[in-house]
Amino acid sequence: MANIDDHTSECSEINAVDGCTTLQQLWSCTFIHWSLIDIFIYFTHKFITIPPPEWIQACHRNGVSCFGTIVVEEWAKYDDDGGQQIDGKQFLDKILANNDLIDRFIDALINIQSFYRFDGWLLNIETSIDLDKISRMKYLIQRLKFKMKSTFSDNEDTQIIWYDSVTRTGKLEWQNELNDMNETFFEDSDAIFLNYTWKNENLVNSRNKACEYRRQYDCYVGVDCYGRGCFGGGGLDGTWKAIEKILDNNLSVAIFAPGWTHESKICSDDLFIRHSNNDDGDERHDNCQMPYWKLIQSTANIYSMEDEFEFWSRIAINGRLLEICEKLLTTLPLQTCFNIGHGYGYYQYGNRIESKPWLNFHHHDLQTSLFIEKNEWKNDYYRLSISYDQPYNGGSSLLIDLYNIIQQPLIPKPITLFRTHIPIDDSMKFRYRFVYKFHQNNYDNKKWLQENLKIRTIINYFHRNSEMGDDNYSAIIIESDGWYIRKPEEEILDDDNNMIRKSFSSIHSIINDWHLIEICIDFHDNFNEIILTKFQIEPYILGEMMLENFSSKIFFGEFYFDKFFQ
């Protein structure tokens, strides 16, 4: 799935490389749902858009490709060599004047991509093209694709995606499907991004045409989160319906403008905004005349991160994106401090070393996949969220609010942090580190928590026994006092027989009220090949229950798992 985000570009107004800002709603310029997307396209309406280094780094850290954009719009104005304003068609005519100019343009694009190290381009040409220049447009696509593949041969993710806007005759006419009128550009590029005002028959036509090339997953069907002429109507209730329909036709999805979750709070139906600090509420401002950061500031009291989670939860579950398209992490290490690249202060090992709000996506960590299914992050027993109150490193941590502890001593199911497909065959020694802290104002309750509330980590894996030849699924259970292997459920007779206790070396220390558990695991005597499939955490009660019910908070400050190197 491709994510075409045009709200992040506005954040460049406040996303300085040094990370300094005074904004109070910093999360409005972030993204954390990386496990649901394969490509992140940094989109603006400017001619050439280069993704900022911090966004490129965040994408790559989370296993996602990052693309820039090349946009020429017929209605836009561009400067020619003489400083005069010309329209988009005239501007494109100059680029396509001859093959030498096209080659120079391509060389410049390759140099930009090489310097910033992003992965590809969305080519968005929304202007008519003279029929005698169609061959040159095709030459541009073909040559750019060739130069990218040869220059970045070690990057299998490098691609050029063509937007469905121009026909083979040069007419500016969005097809909303892959057909005879635009397939020539599909042939030349790596993929096509179809316009979003499609109907069901367009999906069927696109699937049939793409199957002729055996490239149906190179056909990205557009979904506008604002619902402008889009199936389902966009927004919270409609975006997932369009995605479900696309996936039913075995095509790929291109989500356009997911910043809707933020910007819908900025604009009312008449596209005006009210200042949140205006007591009488009568003053209105046209949103086109107000800087983006002012808009964000003025809506500080009406935006909630839960809006973002709810939106992506519906896409993932109702739209079946999680079932069909979730991306699995494939390499070690897995390391995160649950930092989303901003905060109200900066922390190191639980110590606050800076008190000012900050925003710097260079500090955006590997993100978990737990904010997908609503039942996993909010129910009657616990709630998961990002917290700025108790960071360990950076500006945020992962928070679990536990409710009704005496009534529900065990969380109903483990909480999934990472879904993976990590083959391990050259090393069977691993280092694991986990950092957490309790927050409880009542002294007796806090003391009881310290003694009785425990955290276990569950690492699900698959292994193939070379002697038996049988596929076998098991789990490594890590607790504060050691670790053991849990055999498959069908083999379970009772807990004592099933839990094979192993020797271990571990460290349990406390740093600034944070509990740090570090353990080394060696099970090379058990398997010759394993594939790690899921990393989970599970709070549980060990010991006598409290007489009175209460709630508590658990902050998670770091998760680390990697091969052990001596």
From TrEMBL:
Gene Ontology cellular component annotations, sorted alphabetically: cytosol
Domain Cytosolic endo-beta-N-acetylglucosaminidase TIM barrel: 30-345
Entry's Gene Ontology molecular function annotations: mannosyl-glycoprotein endo-beta-N-acetylglucosaminidase activity
The protein's name in its UniProt record: Cytosolic endo-beta-N-acetylglucosaminidase-like
Species for this entry: Dermatophagoides pteronyssinus
